[in-house]
Amino acid sequence: MIAEWLDIGPVDQLPALGARTLPVQGGEEIAIFRTANGQVYALINKCPHKHGPLSQGIVHDTTVTCPLHNWRISLLTGEALGEDKGCVPVIPVKIDGGSILIGRREALQGMA
Amino acid sequence: MSERPHLVVIGNGMAGCRAVEEILARDAGKFRITIFGAEPRVNYNRIMLSPLLAGEKSFEDIVINGHDWYDKNGIELVAGDSVTAIDRVAKTIAAKSGRIESYDKLLIATGSDPFIIPVPGKDLPGVISFRDMDDVGAMLEAANRGGDAVVIGGGLLGLEAAHGLSLRNMKVTVIHLMPTLMERQLDEAAGWLLKDALEGRGQTILTGADTAEIYGEGKVEGIRLKDGREIPASIVVMAVGIRPATALAKEAGLAIGRGIHVDDNMVTSDPDILAVGECVEHDGNVYGLVAPLWDMCRSLADGLVAEPKGYRGSVTSTKLKVAGLDVFSAGDFSGGEGCEDIVLRDATRGVYKRVIVKGDKVVGAVLYGDTADGNWYFDLLKKQEDVSDIRDALIFGQAFAGGGASANPIDAVAALSDDAEICGCNGVSKGQVMACISGGAGSLDAVRSGCKASASCGSCTGLVENLLKLAGHDEERPVKPMCKCTSFTHEDVRKAIVEKELRVIPQVMQALSWSTPDGCSSCRPALNYYLLCAWPESHVDDMQSRFVNERMHANIQKDGTYSVVPRMWGGVTTPDELRAIADACDKYKARMVKVTGGQRLDIFGIKKEDLPAIWADLNAAGMVSGHAYGKALRTVKTCVGSEWCRFGTQDSTGLGIKTEQMTWGSWMPHKFKIAVSGCPRNCAEATIKDFGVICVDSGYELHIGGNGGIHLRGTDLLCKVATEQEALDYCAAFIQLYREEARYLDRTAPWVERVGLEYVKTRIVDDGEGRAELARRFHHAQSFLQKDPWAERAAGSEAHLHQHIAEIRPFAVVGGAA
Ligand SMILES: Cc1cc2nc3c(=O)[nH]c(=O)nc-3n(C[C@H](O)[C@H](O)[C@H](O)COP(=O)(O)OP(=O)(O)OC[C@H]3O[C@@H](n4cnc5c(N)ncnc54)[C@H](O)[C@@H]3O)c2cc1C
Ligand code: SF4
Ligand code: FES
Fold it and tell me: Highest taxon of the source (chain B) (predicted)?
């Protein structure tokens, strides 16, 4: 049976208030974020506006500000905040024994 | 000897004995009871080990149940003999001594095992955990011999150990992997305050520090961090976490997750075996504090001997016991969708409070410095009370909000007594402020000059404003605050950083009462810059507060790739440099090479992962970063000047190169461009640059405040000077003035318009000494900041951040990153 969760390594590879990326061969690249409080979230690494790489934005609270045109995107819902409208898919994440696990099905979605 | 059913308890700790107490209280005669304990002593209060270590208590003080309790209740205590096996079919247990005991009901309360990080040297004598009396004994023994101690783990336990050891006169260093202390209980701001306070007490706290190895010949001599640092130590206390002790239950075939699975009555997958305490998992949760254990023990006893009531899980709160430091945390403080943070920072009292409200209910709280209201918030949280009525005054605590007296901040200040202190810096009371207002001060500025309240650090500005409103002066402040996280202007913030010697972002946020826990994408980069400008020699850059371009030292482009611009001094290059650039373009598959408006070459389409490698290649060819991405000196554009041009009066190219060599690498409020033209024909377009030089027969005309961007602005003439050196000195002084006084993200054009050309002239032209002093500060800062960021990063600092964390391939399982 294929596991539901994918282990992508220890949490401490993520800089606090930063992000790193996870390419999916044949699918959409994923951005893994870590907040000031150590919470970890994952979104498809594509701003709903013009596909800015969200992994490169400034993380504050539970939002990330896109590096291209400053849309604010919620790390929890993937939704654009404020006046802007749009949404980017969220990948479920959990931490287990210091490792980051991401939802396999959601991560592989859109893969040929 | 008795027909009563036999209850055997494994674990003579907090939960095991408490469960027995609860059972006895309901029906003292129901069971014959035997308790096995691995430790050779009676039941004691484990949470008092810290005061014991600190020398505040003795063992007698922390015993919960002495021998008389066991005797009186007919309990047989088998101390110092651990249970090694459970036979569920025969319903017996076996102990290490060989003793076999049969049971009717078995209770497992084995607690947790300390987690030992698997580094080389972890088994050396002198590596201690912090869990029981023996550990404390070992620590005390080491402390008697004196010397250095390293505590690995900056959580509750680690900090208590560190505190105890430093009270015992050891020199203590705490190593913590995460960027802030107690990150699971405290948010970043409170964690930072805690670190600051502990350092003030002489402990060394290293956050973001990862242990590579514990070294020593035959015993501990020190530890080595992954970054190569070594810290000598005669003991190492490992307090990095605990794991439910489930080995025994697992071997017996009970259902186990992270802990032993139990139902609401603490019954395991075997109906005759119960489990309680830290070793269990209930409804997906394991607990590491005593309060939930008490709830569990009650449910266990109810289920076993009385009416089952059923355990429903616990919400936990934490209080740090470390003497003199008040820290409290409860519930979920991570924020999130629909959550609203209410933050109060009172810099003068050293207080930080954050209450997280979701849908009119309190879901979490973090308090530092004043934890008096902790229990009240915790109560609101547990009872899930609707706080919409008291929301506005919630953060002021129970006295204001819960007393029912008032629900708004104006009433709150109205309720203050006349001698309540408003402004801590200047010692101004409410009475004095009110007197000043009734004496005619109708605005914040008038109050500031009238009685000094809010005139220094300004953290009481909100209170003064409320007092003004109370007195009927409802006036908006004319100047705009820096961002929505604060009521201070850029200028206020810069002033406070220097006056109050604020050194790091969390300190600024605390001192100036920021209303958000970690700022926003607009104030953080500004604060990082202001601190760097104020303290060039000591500022540690906060990478996560920089815009991506500066973080990656390259320009992000619309497709998410980057472009890279090597520096070409004064716009001059060589065939070798061009060859190296061409090679790099081929090697990294650049998709375009473009000459920029600033006379440099821009290499487009470079992948984030390839950045360190292309920098290394360009560095190897002698080139450094062009800072084309930065709020920094970009380029110095030049014309060919007297060397080649038939009109040229001076060596504009040479001066351009000198200027660039002096100014490169300097961070600014915004991008900064310079040009040097060799004659008034101005081929280098110096009159639309931040700083422009036009060479003339008799010397150099210096121009400032030009901008070729959205709002085209020609420069103003600052002055004329006679020599190259003067041109350079004026340039340095002008840049420094701009760096020290402009708002972040102001180019020089709007700044000069705001402060006026006359002002700049008085500072740079009229005041010779001031000019020299500004130039001196510029060069001082440059001595620290003029570093090629590409070289640093290509050499490996943070190189991993450019790499993917892992990669997913179809049907393959991913491994961790390298
Ligand atoms: C230094 C320190 C400070 C703490 N401070 C606080 C605090 O301030 N607030 C708070 O709420 N909590 C605190 N805690 C946590 C608290 O002590 C624990 O949550 C609590 O003790 C757990 O109770 P327990 O009975 O599950 O485990 P324990 O109290 O650890 O008891 C388990 C017992 O089982 C014994 N045992 C294990 N295996 C066997 C075996 N096979 N055979 C026989 N015996 C066995 C062990 O020797 C141990 O005595 C602190 C803990 C420590 C170590
Ligand atoms: S600015 Fe004057 S010196 Fe420079 S290239 Fe133009 S004409 Fe020649
Ligand atoms: S692409 Fe993200 S804001 Fe435009």
Answer: Bacteria
Quote the minimal CA–CA distance from A4 to chain B in Å.
12
**Cβ within 8 Å of residue B812, ≥6 positions away:** none
For the stretch B235-270, pLDDT in tens is 999 999 889 999 999 999 999 999 999 999 999 999
Among B679, B694, B695, which is best to mutate for testing ligand 2, by the most ligand atoms less than 8 A from CB? B679
Residue B270 and residue B182 in contact, taking contact as beta carbons nearer than 8 Å: no
- B759 in the same domain as B698: yes
Which ligand lies nearest the alpha carbon of B548? 3
**Residue at a domain's end among B265, B280, B305:** B305
Tokens of B78: 């088998």
Quick check: CB of A84 below 6 Å from ligand 3? no
Asked which of B303-312, B635-644, B733-742 is least confident by mean pLDDT, the reply is B303-312
DSSP-assigned beta bridge partners for residue B364? B331, B356
Q: State in Å: Cα B277 to ligand 1 middle.
A: 8
Helix (H) or strand (E) holding B112: strand B112-114
Residues B132 and B105 in one domain: no
Q: How confident is the model at residue B727 (pLDDT cuts 50, 70, 90)?
A: very high
Q: Is the pLDDT of residue B812 over 90?
A: no
Domains located in chain A, CATH noted? 5-107 (2.102.10.10)
Task: Note the pLDDT of residue B345.
Answer: 82
Domain assignment present for residue B671? The answer is yes
Structural domain including B582 reads: 544-625
Using the Cβ of B799 and the Cβ atoms of chain A, whether some distance falls under 8 Å is answered with no
Average pLDDT for residues B294-318, to the nearest whole number?
Answer: 88
H helices, E strands: number in chain B: 26, 38
Q: B109-128, pLDDT tens digit by residue? A: 999 999 998 999 999 999 99
Q: Say if the Cβ atoms of B521 and A60 lie within 8 Å.
A: yes
Mutation choice for ligand 2 from B643, B682, B703, CB with most ligand atoms inside 8 A: B682
- Measured in whole angstroms, the distance separating CA B117 from the mean position of its chain's CA atoms is 23
Considering the domain architecture, whether residues B104 and B160 belong to the same structural domain is answered as no
